[in-house]
Write a structure and sequence with these properties.
- The protein has eight helices and no strands.
- By secondary structure, it is an all-alpha fold.
- About 35% of the residues are buried.
Length: about 200
């Protein structure tokens, strides 16, 4: 019997409270790495003023991180067929948070460069590779609709990301300017661990 005859509407947005919590979580996952990826150009200005680091050199590390993202995506593609995408997302997001904390605290150029590459790789694969798989598993019959909703986190990030970093810098200083992103990523990780546990509908 077809979904239509059974009264199933694939365009219905009646996800339930837990379903909407998942949508907010997934949108946040899309938001965080996208927002952070747009802030490096501002962060390098702060680093150059504080430590004398060359802006162009540091921004090149984002490009290197993009190359490692391709490797990470290949690895994700292999692992996700053998392991739970949720468990992989927990590992990837935890690594993202750890390196994001270190990149803010670091006063060493080599360490900062390594962390930028790691943050770019783990963040991009968590956001753009593992997150859509989890969405598909959670909403197998509404994944198109849900993806349309949760990817709104991407343009939203582009619109307000500079304000977030500026706020972090003005309130916490250069070593803790990434705190807002760390907090958001930690919230997403907690939701992932506690609530994103089983397939919905």
């Amino acid at each position: 019997m077809s979904d239509k005859k059974m009264g199933y509407n694939p365009n219905s947005m009646n996800f339930g409270a837990k379903g909407w919590l998942f949508c907010l979580f997934s949108a946040l996952v899309f938001f965080i790495p996208t927002a952070l990826g747009s802030t490096w150009q501002m962060a390098v200005v702060y680093w150059e003023a504080a430590y004398g680091w060359n802006q162009v050199f540091i921004l090149n590390m984002v490009t290197v991180g993009g190359l490692f993202t391709v490797i990470g995506a290949f690895l994700c593609g292999i692992l996700v067929t053998k392991r739970s995408p949720r468990k992989l997302a927990i590992i990837w997001s935890a690594a993202y948070i750890i390196f994001l904390v270190i990149v803010g605290l670091s006063e060493s150029l080599p360490l900062t460069c390594v962390c930028i590459v790691a943050v770019t790789m783990f963040g991009s694969n968590w956001c753009y590779n593992l997150n859509p798989v989890i969405v598909s598993n959670w909403f197998p019959r509404k994944k198109g609709l849900v993806m349309g909703i949760v990817t709104m986190g991407i343009p939203l990030a582009a619109g307000i990301t500079t304000k977030i970093l500026t706020w972090g810098f003005n309130n916490f200083g250069i070593r803790l300017m990434f705190i807002p992103y760390v907090v958001m990523a930690a919230i997403a990780l907690v939701v992932l661990i506690l609530f994103v546990t089983v397939q919905s509908g």
